[in-house]
Amino acid sequence: MSEPTMGRFEGKTHILPVRVYYEDTDVSGIVYHANYLRFLERGRSEALRLAGVHHMVMMSGEEPVAWTIRRIEIDYARPAKLDDALEVHTRYRVLAGARLNGEQWVKRNGEDLVTAKIEAALITMSGRPRRIPEQVRAKIAQYLD
Amino acid sequence: MSEPTMGRFEGKTHILPVRVYYEDTDVSGIVYHANYLRFLERGRSEALRLAGVHHMVMMSGEEPVAWTIRRIEIDYARPAKLDDALEVHTRYRVLAGARLNGEQWVKRNGEDLVTAKIEAALITMSGRPRRIPEQVRAKIAQYLD
Amino acid sequence: MSEPTMGRFEGKTHILPVRVYYEDTDVSGIVYHANYLRFLERGRSEALRLAGVHHMVMMSGEEPVAWTIRRIEIDYARPAKLDDALEVHTRYRVLAGARLNGEQWVKRNGEDLVTAKIEAALITMSGRPRRIPEQVRAKIAQYLD
Amino acid sequence: MSEPTMGRFEGKTHILPVRVYYEDTDVSGIVYHANYLRFLERGRSEALRLAGVHHMVMMSGEEPVAWTIRRIEIDYARPAKLDDALEVHTRYRVLAGARLNGEQWVKRNGEDLVTAKIEAALITMSGRPRRIPEQVRAKIAQYLD
User: Fold this and answer.
1) Calpha distance D54→D66 (Å, rounded)
2) Assigned domain for B3 exists
3) Complex ipTM above 0.90?
4) B83 is known as an active-site residue
5) Beta bridge pairs of residue C121
């Protein structure tokens, strides 16, 4: 069995290759705008996984906690098309309390298609923010930029 | 505040109007095949809601139980396009133990586009089948065909 | 046959009721962040339709043109859950050349869950911006705020 | 730049590793049933690509043609969960005229989770079936089982 790719770090930037399929496109012939948010989430998840955080829902004491999104700013400069080989670049910037901020961009052949600023937070299943656990902070901290 | 539509029953067949948006289409200019499964789920959910089952995740004793899909047979006869006004027709056929079988079809202007046979089941969060609770059975039973 | 709802205008604000289904949720028990962008697109499309713009891909002279998204700022304040009855509110703000700006927010029982600023533009299938056609401008203009 | 994986063939079976992300799950904690159809499409696309068919929308003479789905039978035996490393297995069975039939299954650690029979066809943008072009037939034929 071969594992799905976790991408790679170049310095503190994580890079995940992503392919564009029919599922990602819309009638205008290009990637549907909301689907870049799915690509970005894949990038953030694999950045964490490669940094050693293997579970995207984790235990904080006896309680399960999950990542949620607080805010996104996203600029669409150029469209991606069916069959394109893209790269999702992820750079984590700030880790504070329950909060994790990052910058992400989607490239094709070295050209930026989409750029985004993301604020994520860790919350309980009832929606309350929870400080990111110490061992998770340590793993992310080594890639903070 | 106005509520989202729950559709209507004509005899034992539930009918839900659905609009096709960019999100539903793909590069070939028509509705992406997997997205009909989302339309069908909306139809099944509103059929249950209008029959009096208001919570799609419910309690069975002290345990939450959710609907899962066991099997689908789906035939795509004609494509739907952006802006189309569709109708999802749902007819429940068999209710037995944890299991609920139905037939569904998607129409546009009286013409069938897609037809499907669905087998759903009620399961616990750890994946074990659970007999459909008595008060839920009674509500569905009146629309069994 | 009954048509899917086009929502309604209250003054210059368009309001579309939307239901949360399994398809919209994720493992953390709430609506997946990217799926609000689908809700917002439904709101913008029905606002246009109710204003008299019936085709989301239209002809500009002899060429088909489609709406694309240039930029989104979105804030997630409170989560929506399975079975929730939501309202998507849409207010168009600026119409200039190929560009249409709007503000949107998602409410539940009078409370804001998500707020967004959106910049859309009309483009050809090869990606070039196209001035919004005169008869479309006139229809949107009456609801500009 | 590293390319997204195209998976590999083992004999005539194509195998594509796929990771489960938040986007794929629903409130019941498992992969939403319609999303397996997205995984299956990725498997079929990469099987074609690795066989030498690089464009999922292609020219047939002077006309663009795209793959469409005619029929799916899908059985859900066991659920997949967030962070799971899955494999999509694809075996093409029959290639006749416009039509391509295949069998697919999704595995985790050697265990089948989902099995499916798929009938695809090549159509023009106006929906008419088109005989699969000769050079494409030759590439698929070597992997027909």
Assistant:
1) 13
2) no
3) yes
4) no
5) C68, C99
